[in-house]
Each structure stands twice: as C-alpha cells, then as structure tokens.
Amino acid sequence: MKMKKLFAMLAVTAMAGTLFWSNTVLAGEQDSVTISVGSDPTTLAPNGTSGDGWTYAQIYDQLWNLTDGELVMRIATGYEVEDDTHYVITIQPGIKDTAGNEIKASDVLFSIELAKNGAAGYPGATRYIDIENSEVIDDTNVRVALTQPCSFQMKALSMVNIVTQASYEASPDGMVTTPVGSGPYMLDEYVTGSHVNLVANPEYWDGQPEAINKVTVNFVQEASQRANVALTGESDFSWCVSFMDAQALEDAENVVFSHDTSLNSTVMIFNNYETSPFSKNLELRKAVAYATNKEAIIATAVGGFGEISSCCTSRNFSDYSDSYVEIASDTNNYAFDMEKAKECFEASGVAEGTTLRLLIGNQPGFDVAGQVIQAALSELGLNVEILYYPDTQNIVTPNQPEDWDFTLWSWTNYPAQSGLATLNTFIGSDYPHLPEDESAVIMGDIGEAMSASEEEVAEKMDVLMTDMYEMLPIFGLYDECRLNAYSADLNVEWKCQDYPLINKWTWK
C-alpha cells in the first residue's frame, strides 16, 4: 500500500472515530505493543540501510551495545587487545538463531565481512577491519586484524548485526525480506510501505519477554500523524514527533511526552577556500561564532528542544568527554556576545557590506536558523545571502569550494559513531578547505588519537578538541532532542543509547 493511500485511509477512518491498521496487532493489548516510526527500512538485511533501527534491534543481536559510551556485552563476553592492530573477541557458546543454527566465531567474522561490504552506514563500522588477515581461532574466539591502529574500532563494531552464515546463505534474497537473527523477536510479516509484525523468539538466549510477545512497527511518514495516533491511543509509542505538537502531547493525560538529547547535532562549517572571506581569517570566523545566538536558534528552529553544543561534534558520540566543556571555557564556548563579535569583526579587516553565502539544506528548522544568523550578522555590517539546496552534500564537497562560504550541517549519528571518525572523514576529505598548515595540525592530532591505546585516547582527543577550538573550522551549535510520545500505561525501559529492546517493556 502506498503511503498516500494509507494516509487517505487514516483520514477517513479517523473521522469515523476508528483507525484501521492493515495488521492484526491493536494498540493497548497487554501482550503487544504498536510503534509508529517515520520510515520504511526498505530492507531487513543485516547489512542493509537502517531506515528503521527499531526492527533491526529486535531481530538481530550484536557483539555488544553502547550505553553512555560504555560497552554492554551481548553475544560477546569481551575482547583481548593483543597489540594495536589485533584483537581477540570471545563469544558465548550455545546461542542459536531462530533457524536453530548456533552462532560461532566463524559467523562473527562472516557478519563483519557482510557489514564491510554492506550499504551506507555499515562500512563505517568496519572501516579499519582487515578481513584477509583476520582469522577464526576456534568456535568461540576470533582474531580481528586492523589495517591500522584505530582506538574506536571496537566500539564501532557494536553496529554490526550478527547472523549465521548458514541462515544467510539459505535466504532466497539475502535476508531482505526473510531475516533470521538471534534477537528477542522474529519476523512474522513485512508489508513494504505499511508495517512490520514481529513475534517473540521462543528460544531467545536472554530470556522471554517481560510482557510484550507481539510488536507491530507502523511506518507513518508525517510527524504530525505520529503525534495524532499517540493522542488517540492508536499507537502505544510514537517515535520522533514534531515539536509543533509538543503542547498537545504534554497536556494529554493518556500520553507521556519524553524528550532527551538525541544522536543528532547541528554544526556550522566555515569554508576556508581561497575565494571565501573566511580563508585564513580566524577573526572573521570568531566574529560569526560570537554573533550566532544559539539559544535563539534552538528556540525558533527546534521549538526549544535542543541543548547548546559543548563541542564541535556531539555529546552523544561514543568518545565524547566532559573535558570538552572545560576546553570550550577558554572561549566561553563562543557564547553569544555581540561586543566580542564586533571586536573580532573589526580585527578581521573585512569591509562592511561584504556578502557571505550561507548554504542551507532541507533539514527541519535550518531555514529558520539561517534567518536568525542572517539578522545577527547584519548588525555587524555583513550581508548574508542564503542559498537553499535540497541536499547540502551535493555542494559541500571538495569539488565545489567556490560556491559557498559557510553552511549548517547536521551530524546524523549512530550509537557507536565516533567524533574522531567523523572529524577524520570531514577534515581528511577537505570539506572545510583548511590551509595546508592548519590541516596538517588537525590531521596530525587525529592520527595521534586514532593510534592511541584505549587508556591514552582521551588525552589525545583533548589535544584535538583544543586545536579545533583555536582554529575554528567547525563550530558546534546545538544537540537536537529526540521527541517521543507513548502510552501512560506503558513502562518503557531503554537498554541502549539508540533503540530500546522492547522485550524489557511492560504494561502497568
């Protein structure tokens, strides 16, 4: 069923006072839960595009999850560091997938290779894995080799979904519609564009669900509609609702409206290419940073549901440290200060009336944020031309540096995403077009942090963040909040930083 037809059905049936989903699980049933998410995953393959992580988290297990940056073991019991490019991972014996195949160390290596060859997002989890030189030691131990030292690689492996080679090769479509995992639930039905039905895995190694034996994940594209079905009780849990519906959700007695810092954050990127006014002009970059009112942007662009960024990456990256706040204190984190902005602008030597081109993508709220920045910089005597592009990645590349001066960018993060990995990609790919000397310093810092031991990496990251603040190629604006709405009768337990394991949920 196409989404337009689905929403037409919703509108008609809602007017009649009832809402009919094309599945058999109804909201409020005491052994089931109905969840509304914004997108269809399009594939349920373990190495596919994770458009709906809710489903992946229920069907598949991982070696470990991340909670507040710390590893929480799943099918693995731990790992041993042999040297800076070799790790031995040990898994629990006896864990089976829903086809009855036991997960062995050879399956772990097979799954890592699947991820390495998989869709966008998953190669990042295995970027520095050297498959050819990795080897199975025995049924419960696998030696994983790296192509180079990488301090965040083990945390990144938490994004790899583990499957058995036997089940994967038995699938007629590479598990696109026939997934077989060892997670708490297994697939009952997948209707593209409509929903996924899951049922409890009767042989789940970590125990049967507390109460939820059936799960329906409905694909509801519009955030306002996700809020509506939460209010009417037709969805037990609505994921990522809009701040535009916040007041109605907060006032509803039958709904819990929750908001916490999400995995996404918004930054400002300065283009230092030779044709840009920001080129080799730190004072101008500082002037723009001080003139940017983060609180005003949060209030208008995301309805107040955000937190001022404390670094140039995200507080929810796996390698975030509270020490970044202390580092930022040297500049007061470039807090809004028009007097300092004017001082820096005067020191920059840039003439009043200069035009800066601000590139804006189609992310929610970016147009409003751009207008706030435009108004603030006009007080400095700068003109801001806002350029609207459907996808900033089409232009914010090393290939078109002459077409923009600065831009807003949203880091869309996975639970295991590393700030170090993100900066390595961004600076290494020359997105800010830094002068060679500045780029060499930052890339040197990144190299030091990547090759550091797990005990030393925090210190090396502090050095990197200090240089990022001093050179200011990227300026953190705000960390976005995740807004959810769920039934007041539902006990929701979060088991990992990103998606919860629903088998721990219960009804009151």
The low-confidence parts are 1-24
The biggest beta sheet reads:
11 strands, mixed
Instruction: Tell me the number of strands.
Output: 19
Instruction: Quote the distance from N terminus to C terminus.
Output: 34 Å
What structural class do helix, strand and pairing data support?
A: alpha+beta
Q: Determine the fraction of residues in helical runs and give it as a percent range.
A: 25-40%
Please state the overall shape, judged from the principal axes of the Cα atoms: globular
* Discrete helix count: 15
Q: Note the beta-strand portion.
A: 15-25%
CA radius of gyration = 24 Å
Mean pLDDT, all residues: 86
Detailed description of the structure:
By secondary structure, the protein is of the alpha+beta class. The chain is 29% helix and 24% strand. α9 (294-301) runs antiparallel to α12 (366-379) and α13 runs antiparallel to α14. The radius of gyration is 24 Å and the shape is globular. The model is unreliable at 1-24 (pLDDT under 50).
Which helices and strands occur, and which strands form pairs?
Blueprint: H1 3-15, E1 32-37, H2 53-59, E2 64-67, E3 70-73, E4 76-83, E5 86-91, H3 105-116, E6 129-138, E7 141-146, H4 153-156, H5 165-170, E8 185-191, E9 195-200, E10 214-219, H6 223-231, E11 237-238, H7 246-251, E12 255-270, H8 282-291, H9 294-301, E13 306-308, H10 323-328, H11 338-348, E14 355-360, H12 366-379, E15 383-388, E16 406-412, H13 419-428, H14 436-450, H15 457-471, E17 474-487, E18 490-491, E19 506-507
Parallel strand pairs: 1-10, 1-11, 14-15, 14-16
Antiparallel strand pairs: 2-3, 4-5, 5-7, 6-7, 8-9, 9-10, 11-17, 12-16, 12-17, 13-17, 18-19
Helix pairs in contact: 8-11, 9-12, 13-14, 14-15
